[in-house]
Amino acid sequence: MTHDTGVYRAYQRAEERLRGQGGRVRRVVLDYELKRDYQRFLHERNRGKKDCDGRPDREPEEIAQWAREHELPYHDGHVRFPDARLEYEDRDGRSRHEDIEVVTGHYRGAHVGSAAKSGFTCYSSTGRSVGGRGGGGRHPRIAEELIR
After folding, report:
1. For residue 146, what are the CA distances in angstroms to 79, 114, 116, 125?
2. Given this model, what pLDDT does residue 79 score?
3. Can you tell me the mean pLDDT for 9-33?
């Protein structure tokens, strides 16, 4: 519940910023929706096969291509998913999206590094922007907050 509240606060901040730039959010896609689509892709060849062992039949190159097509980062053999994707129209009417991630005090080691290089707009669990592609201001104590 706490994390979901943080995602909602981050959405509110991002939506406010995008609106201030002349944009209009059309849809919010949550992480589970993106992950569901990914799982469908991974297992589509096995659908309906009685002798399937449950493991996906995809090569790393196919997975990397899927990630590129869905504009998601692919690092070290893994697709990285944001907490939410905001699909919006910019002031010129072009369709765009912004991926947001809520960073909590529980982030450690590799998780911090993955969040940092994802390109997602990161927000602290309080909803404050802490950097990323969204153009929000950087939180002055982000390193301390992430390492806690």
Report:
1. 22, 12, 10, 11
2. 94
3. 96
CA pseudo-torsion sign 77, 11, 20, 142: negative
Measured distance CA(115)–CA(64) in Å, rounded = 18
Task: Read off the tokens for 1.
Answer: 């519940």
The backbone torsions φ and ψ at residue 72, rounded to the nearest 5 degrees and listed phi first, read: -120, 145
Cβ proximity of 91 and 23 under 8 Å: yes
Q: Among 6-15, 66-75, 90-99, 129-138, which is the least confidently predicted range?
A: 129-138
Question: Which backbone phi and psi does 119 adopt, to 5 degrees?
Answer: 85, 0
Cβ–Cβ < 8 Å for 121, 98: yes
pTM of the model: 0.75
Residue whose token pair is 């569901």: 36
For 4-18, b/e burial (b = at least 16 CB within 10 A) is eebbebbbebbbebb
Contact 125, 112 (CB under 8 A): no
CA gap 122, 124 in Å, rounded: 7
